[in-house]
SDR family oxidoreductase (Streptomyces axinellae), 276 residues
Amino acid sequence: MSVVVVTGGTRGVGTGIARAFLRDGAEVVICGRNPPERPLAEAGRRARYLPLDVRDPAAAEEFVHRVARDHGSLDVLVNNAGGTPYRPLAEGEPHRHARVVELNLLAPLHLSRAARPVMRQQPGGGVILMIGSVSGTRPSPGTAAYGAAKAGLASLAGSMAVEWAGDGIRVNTLVLGMVATERLRDHFGGGDGLGPALDRTVPLGRPAEPGEVGEACVFLASPGAAYITGASLAVHGGGERLALHDVTARESTPAPAPAPAPGPDPGPGPDRGQNL
């Protein structure tokens, strides 16, 4: 039975990932600074919660050793904890931007380094999954530090995959677009629905569900993905529609033909008025 750690597994995308692994039969440990509002359970199995500030390297190392000691192994680490408030670069104190980078880039680095000695001693090695974002693949105004951290995370995962392949550790990144979580609703103004205008920005016409991200994680951690490492799997519904697409669509749509000028009445005929 696999032992899986999901950081930030107490809410949002993290709960979707944790539930998917529970359905797959894994022992799941979730961590965060605060416990979930209610125990996280799925398919008759319950995730274990342990408190952790992922930005603390010493605490991350102690946490990994505790999981390995209590559960006998650490087979999969999902570095999911992350996020950012909307904050233009010219606003906010420097340390606030730095903390975004710490959470989204340095914390996965510290936890992965802590997990390596455990994983490399296991017969089956281990799997590390980074939860990335499309924000790391294009400009991210208003969340620039977050976008820069996610870009760095993909680079880190690629280097880690090469360095640790000999240890039997596979490292991959999931590049997420919008996911239907409470945080996404809050970011775009709240409400039960995210709105058709927002949905139209995704080629598949909707955000991902947290469970769909979880199923992608389960696949990348499975024996079926045994030859996949150093890869980035896009889980974004086709990406983001560019404003240019809408402009060119409007320009290429032919204008309606003008109505014909009225002429003399041709008079009654055999078919005139038949379909009125």
Q: What stands out?
A: Helices lie at 12-23, 57-71, 94-120, 144-164, 182-187, 196-199, 210-221, 243-252. The beta strands are 3-7, 27-32, 41-42, 45-46, 48-51, 76-79, 126-133, 169-176, 232-235.
